[in-house]
Design brief:
Elements (H helix, E strand, L loop, with lengths): L1 E5 L3 H13 L3 E5 L2 H10 L4 E5 L7 H10 L6 E5 L4 H10 L3 E4 L4 H14 L7 E4 L2 E4 L4 E4 L2 E3 L3 H11 L6 E2 H9 L7 H15 L8 E4 L3 E4 L6
Parallel strand pairs: 1-2, 1-3, 3-4, 4-5
Antiparallel strand pairs: 6-7, 7-8, 8-9, 10-12, 11-12
Bound molecules: calcium ion.
Calcium ion binds next to loops.
Length: 226
């Protein structure tokens, strides 16, 4: 993969560049907000690893600028420990995931793979299956015109499934995609969340849209499974 690292801390940038190169990726480094923006505009990357605190302007501002010009490259944000405000600002600016410093290189690799697998996300797109609509920018979910209130995890699950409408999401794909790779999530927990989600999405008398593929995973589609 082609990976852009935007990090002003020299030793950290070099560690990331070297590690990612050893893993077979092609990694380039930018050391400021403006430099990162320029590189992202002139070259195509599969993933951008973006530090929040940068000279010029912040990683959040960089993410916002990319998204504003329609660049949907997956972004993994690096934030300082306990900086919850950074996390919220980063995700709000258009980052796809975040990692808190200090982190292990293994975890970074797993997260890079996960955001790359999700691919360029069309922010602000409305996903539709039958009379179910999910707006990824406003996080509004409607079924048959009725607004549904989902928790953060329920929304994450539904969005993950609706981005793959008609295809089966395996249990491990769902756990990695919604909770993040390497998180300790029991299979029962996944089932419990899907059960809660289903109670809100598929009410009695409505066409069931969330299907269970026994032993494999889940799928959202309008047509029933035989
Ligand atoms: Ca920094």
């Amino acid at each position: 993969m082609r990976i852009l690292i935007v990090e002003d801390e020299k030793s950290m940038a070099e560690l990331l560049r070297q590690g990612l190169t050893e893993e077979g990726h092609c990694a380039e480094v930018a050391r400021s907000g403006p430099d990162g923006t320029t590189l992202a505009a002139t070259s195509r990357y599969d993933v951008i690893v973006l530090d929040v605190m940068l000279p010029g302007f912040s990683g959040c501002e960089l993410a916002r600028r990319l998204r504003r010009r329609g660049d949907q490259t997956p972004i993994l944000m690096l934030t300082a420990r306990d900086a919850d405000a950074d996390v919220v600002a980063g995700l709000d600016a258009g980052a796809d995931d975040y990692l808190t410093k200090p982190f292990s290189f293994e975890v970074l690799l797993a997260r890079v793979r996960a955001v790359a697998r999700r691919g360029p996300v069309a922010h602000g797109v409305v996903l539709r299956v039958g009379d179910l609509a999910l707006d990824s920018s406003t996080r509004a979910v409607h079924r048959g015109g009725e607004r549904l209130t989902l928790t953060r995890t329920e929304f994450g699950l539904l969005e993950f499934l609706m981005r793959r409408t008609g295809t089966i999401a395996t249990r491990s794909m769902l756990i990695d995609g919604v909770w993040g790779p390497g998180r300790e999530i029991e299979g029962n927990t996944l089932d419990a969340f899907v059960h809660l989600l289903r109670q809100k999405i598929d009410r009695p008398g409505q066409t069931p849209l969330i299907h269970t593929i026994r032993g494999v995973g889940y799928c959202v589609r309008e047509e029933p499974f035989a």
